UniProtKB/TrEMBL annotation:
Gene3D superfamilies: Variant Surface Glycoprotein, subunit A domain 1 (3.90.150.10), Variant Surface Glycoprotein, subunit A, domain 2 (1.10.470.10). This is Variant surface glycoprotein 3384. It is found in: Cell membrane. Pfam families: Trypan_glycop. It comes from Trypanosoma brucei. GO terms for cellular component: plasma membrane; side of membrane. The keyword DNA-binding does not apply. Keywords: Cell membrane, Glycoprotein, GPI-anchor, Lipoprotein, Membrane. SUPFAM superfamilies: Variant surface glycoprotein (N-terminal domain) (SSF58087). It is a lipid-anchor; GPI-anchor. The keyword Repeat does not apply. Residues 26-329 form the Trypanosome variant surface glycoprotein A-type N-terminal domain.
């Protein structure tokens, strides 16, 4: 699970699947577990010395962080909404290709239904997997063949025509991106439903649409799949993966402040909390390292005793399992 949790999403970058989106909203539990194991190993090497305030506070903070490392409801909803958006997009693309290549959907050939070799493509030859967007290439008579309307410059939509109504057939018009006409996806007409266009950002709402007239494209900005994309962008822009060994990040963490207040002030008046943090850990990331964490990670160990002969300090063990094993030697 840890490797997935570390997956970072950049603003504007679509997630690859539901799992990566959902896990991106979790705290980095792998990193937390490693820090906890390093601190535990440090304590196991310091049995003759009492834990310092810094050690107790940091240990309590890590324990709190791990026990509460689940996203709030809003983060879950935004993450799942983002995955919904991508599923919708892949689903629309797969459906478009499948229907366009069909020879049976409406009793006539879809606009991609004939290849350069004259072979019909059936609905089953194009498959869309919504969870990762993979689309299998068409296979006809055990060989790959190009689709008639796919050209080196893109999809051939044919020459401009007055409209895409019933008088235009798939034989002379190429592919249009709606099924509002006989020249549509399945070679048939549908004048009843609004047809998604451009992954749902617009709808075609006119069966007499002209190729040079885009006024019939009705914005779909209020639809759910558009809203989820906007929510995902908002979520990723607000996402920050903290470094738990930097005091600048720790001081911004509610659980770190709560752990410090509980230990130092017994959850009472914590108005001097920032001053106390400065006294204990310093005021810079370098001082946190020098005052506390350096002593943990540079503690000497004998890795040969537990099969890690190259491990001479705590920091040389990055695997939480190895760190845990080391505690018992």
């Amino acid at each position: 699970m840890g490797n997935f949790v570390q997956h970072r999403l950049r603003p504007g970058q679509a997630p690859s699947n539901v799992a990566s989106v959902f896990l991106s909203s979790l705290a980095n539990t792998r990193e937390l577990t490693k820090l906890q194991a390093q601190l535990s190993l440090y304590r196991a090497t310091q049995t003759t010395r009492s834990p310092s305030h810094q050690e107790v506070i940091f240990g309590a903070f890590i324990a709190r962080k791990i026990s509460g490392s689940k996203p709030n409801d809003a983060s879950v909803l935004q993450a799942l909404a983002a995955a919904n958006h991508l599923g919708f997009f892949h689903g629309q693309l797969a459906k478009w290709l499948s229907v366009a290549a069909s020879t049976s959907t409406s009793g006539s050939t879809g606009c991609l239904g004939v290849t350069t070799n004259g072979d019909a493509i059936t609905l089953a030859t194009l498959k869309g997997l919504a969870h990762n967007g993979k689309i299998e290439p068409p296979q006809i008579a055990n060989r790959l063949t190009s689709l008639a309307k796919f050209k080196s410059a893109g999809i051939d939509t044919g020459t401009a025509k007055s409209n895409t109504a019933a008088s235009h057939t798939n034989g002379n018009g190429g592919c249009v991106f709606t099924q509002h006409a006989n020249n549509g996806l399945a070679g048939g007409e549908d004048k009843t439903h609004k047809i998604p266009f451009a992954a749902g950002y617009f709808y075609v709402d006119n069966d007499e649409i002209k190729t040079e007239d885009w006024t019939a494209l009705v914005p779909g900005a209020n639809d759910a799949h558009v809203k989820t994309w906007q929510a995902f962008n908002q979520y990723t822009k607000s996402t920050h993966q903290p470094n738990y060994t930097k005091i600048s990040d720790l001081k911004q963490d509610t659980e770190f402040r709560e752990a410090t207040a509980a230990i130092i002030y017994d959850d009472k008046d914590a108005s001097q909390l920032d001053n106390k943090l400065k006294d204990l850990f310093g005021d810079t990331d370098d001082s946190f390292e020098e005052n506390f964490w350096k002593h943990v990670r540079e503690t000497k160990i004998d890795g040969a005793k537990f099969g890690e002969k190259d491990a001479t300090t705590i920091q040389s063990l990055g695997d939480p399992i190895k760190l845990t094993n080391a505690i018992y030697y």
